[in-house]
Amino acid sequence: MVRVLGKGNSIFNQFLSEVRDQHIQKDKLRFRRNMERLGEIFAYEISKELQYKEEEVVTPLGTAKMHLLEEQPLLATILRAGLPFHQGMLNYFDRANNAFVSVYRKYDKDEDFVIKLDYISSPSTKDSVLIISDPMLATGGSLIASIKGLAEKGKPRHLHIVSVLASNEGIDNLKKTFSKWKMTIWIGAIDDELTAKAYIVPGLGDAGDLAYGNKED
To answer: pLDDT, tens digit, for every residue of 70-107?
Structure first.
């Protein structure tokens, strides 16, 4: 199942337009905050799909019956670009455990690349509701490597994949790789074109550099 939040009219598209805008992007603080806001909206939408139980809450004047989360999801993200996006979801799922994955593209002289998985910090993922975020879903290589690495700590009960922008190729690769998993893919918008270096067009550029400054390859 693929959910595209940007298809509807909502404030979500205001924040999405600002992370794309090359002039607004120059303000790193605003870029990070907009990524955080997008993460918050995704978290709210995902929360509608989770399991709830009825509990009694004591107020100063009596008792109220409320439907509260049965369990907290496990939030995972890919360093470094995913950090502000992840923080937005953590603002809402504020009791969740967290996982972090270090994965990157390793380029050769011909500008071809392979995906390198360096490090994972995570609790057990067995039978969890795993929400993994990565702002850009291009080919899907980084997410696939990250999910497979996390799955070594146990297969999740339900996998939610969250990206601000995605290509159809990346979505298709995730569907093929995890066809036997219970999975929902959450996207802000789908851009059709990928460059020869597998960058999404029109996209927004390098989310990690925009949030934290340029890096040396």
So the answer is: 999 999 999 989 999 999 999 999 999 999 999 876 66
| End-to-end Cα spacing for the chain | 35
Domain 2-212 has CATH 3.40.50.450: no
CA distances from 183 to 21, 62, 129, 132, 164 (A): 31, 41, 10, 11, 17
Question: Cα–Cα distance between 28 and 13 in angstroms, integer?
Answer: 19
Measured between alpha carbons, how far is 37 from 43 in angstroms, rounded to an integer? 10
Which of 94, 97, 57 lies closest to 77, judged by CA? 97
Q: Which residues of 54-76 are buried (b: 16+ CB within 10 A; e: fewer)?
A: eeeeeeeeeeeeeeebeeebbbb
Please give the backbone phi and psi of residue 191, each rounded to the nearest 5 degrees, phi first. Answer: -105, 135
The structural domains of the chain, with segments of one domain joined by +, span 2-212
Asked whether the whole model's pTM tops 0.70, one would answer yes
Which CA distances in Å does 144 have to 44, 96, 138, 174, 177? Answer: 24, 22, 11, 7, 8
Q: Which residue has the tokens 């899907």?
A: 140
